[in-house]
Amino acid sequence: MAIHPADSPIFGTLYGTDAMRTVFDERALFQRMLDVEAALARCEARLGIIPAEAAEAITRAAGDVVLDEGAIAKSVRNVGYPVVAVVRALSRAAGDEAGRYTHWGATTQDILDTAVALQVKSGLALVRTSLVAVIDPLAVLADRHRGTVMVGRTHLQHAAPISFGLKCAVWLAPLVAHVERLDQLRPRAERVQFGGAVGTLASLGTRGAEVGDLLAAELGLEGGGVPWHVARDGFVEAVGFLGLLCGSLSKIATDVTLLGQTEVAEVFEPYEEGRGGSSTMPQKRNPIASEYVLAAARTVQAMVPLMQNAMAQDHERATGPWQVEPAALPQAFVLAHGALEHARHLASGLRIDEARMRKNTEAGGGLLMAEAVMMELAPRVGRGEAHHLVEQACARALADGLDLAEALRRTPETRAHLDDATVARATDPGRYLGSTSAFIDRVLSGAAAVSR
């Protein structure tokens, strides 16, 4: 029975993906541990530290051994880690002679951390692929709707016109930056761990660093540097990145939810029969994808301080802080990937009601264009006076039930400077989009670069 919904066969599709669960499944972790042990044996054999025949037998056994999960569970309850039981099983499978050389010079955390680094590598690769799959359809929307006029809202109130394409570009820009962040952080998070008991690798004499670098190359991880048993910044940075990513996805989800309100009705989630339905209200189409993006974001972001707080590790091996990671790191990856898949679903199938967008720009009686009128008037009377005069005209429009253009015509101070043609031009939302196209082009250029 699942306790966390991300692991549930029922709720799992809402909170995560099978692909990411497969990466962080505990069976996958055990296999990664076996892979690390086999790679270590091969590297040490290549350097003449252990017999080549032993490395070959260990490698064969790592691919064939059937682990007794009951025995591992019993060992973990006693030891606190699964490595001892896994190494014991591998040694038996490799045979008495070869088995003597398993885990040569390594310590538990070398194997466990390097196995998790391999999981993180696979997880970040999945994240990158899904992130680009969100970027591409958003870029299409930004370009297609660069001239689709809609209300720009500040403090949930009508402010000034924008285009839906610009809104999509604002959603898109952080995601492009996240691809760059991801590519930059991966070498810091995908690092081999090989330090032995206290980070000196004294058990291998003076060849420990050489073995570690060869092991990194064998596993496709980063080498060099020093053992990082108690310096967890790489994994912490990876989870911090997932928190940032989910924050950006939650911005999109929040906007889609608000734009889909009945009173706004400008943008809707993709619709499938029965999706987002209510047990009592047949008309409901709830924004399910957006809601689960928001849920995932809040949970992933809660994992970030857990990981950061666990960085205060004592001496050469921590007594407690490290144990937070297995609870936080896999969960953050699974939930973040689930959020990405919901966002991909949104971006690929958003329903946009352009007519309703235009109608909503007119709903406030032209008050949306107050800034545009002010800037038309400012060269004639100064910006401060223009602000004052237009503010008075807006107050009159609200008090008398007029649209802004009519209020301006009835205000002598503005009528003296703005003729009907100027007022008509200044109150046309489509004429007040400023540098919208230039900004969209900048974002699309960045999106094209990371999608290659």
UniProtKB/TrEMBL annotation:
One MF term in the entry's GO annotations: lyase activity
Matching Pfam families: ADSL_C (PF10397), Lyase_1 (PF00206)
Keywords: Lyase
InterPro entries documented for this protein: AdenyloSucc_lyase_C, Fumarate_lyase_CS, Fumarate_lyase_fam, Fumarate_lyase_N, L-Aspartase-like
Keyword Transport (UniProt): no
Adenylosuccinate lyase C-terminal domain span: 365-444
Coiled coil: none
Keyword match Nucleus: no
Xref: SMART domains: ADSL_C
Source domain of life: Bacteria
Family: Belongs to the class-II fumarase/aspartase family.
Protein name: Adenylosuccinate lyase family protein
